[in-house]
Design goal:
This protein is an all-alpha fold. Helix 1 runs antiparallel to helix 2 and helix 2 (27-37) packs across helix 3. It has helices at residues 4-23, 27-37, 43-50. It is globular.
């Protein structure tokens, strides 16, 4: 079970990421944002996210 503080921090991280994504113009920028926010994601997943 997550604490309120953990949920708050996750929400804050996602909010910042979506704010950056709304300004991204190219798939490469999108990939860079995901990689910066979630460095633990495999490259294959990031490439899949860039395609959408």
């Amino acid at each position: 079970m997550l604490t309120k503080k953990e949920l708050y921090l996750i929400g804050k991280k996602l909010s910042a990421m979506y704010k950056k994504l709304s300004k991204a113009k190219t798939p490469e920028e999108v990939g860079a944002i995901y990689k910066e926010t979630y460095p633990e994601l495999p490259e294959k997943v990031i490439k899949s996210l860039m395609a959408h």
